[in-house]
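Model it.
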Amino acid sequence: QRIAHAAAMSPERRAAVASAAAGVMTAVAWFVFADAAVKADRKGHTVDAVDVLPGIGATLALLLINMVDYGEISADSFSFSGENVAAKARAWTFFWFLGMFACIFGSIFLLVFRHEHHDAPQQDVAKSS
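Modeled.
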């Protein structure tokens, strides 16, 4: 029944609900990151400024994507002032989606790079006794 109710919503209303949900998830993600940074500090690990950059970039991209009105993406030149409003809004949205994906890939790279080059003692499996 909830899915049918969501499908019955207007596209503008659905975009507003999705935007609010994205904002809540971003706030929860920053809270979890801050909590993990405090716990890491208690265990003697550090959180560098490089670790924060993908999150800042993704948050900025989310804010800039939400600046575009949903009606502008599907608008004709007659409904808003100026020429090619829909094309400009689509290009803006596409560019910041690319930026958000770059932040995701950057954070995955940092995670893998830090895990791979961790200074933990490693066992040499190939070494014979």
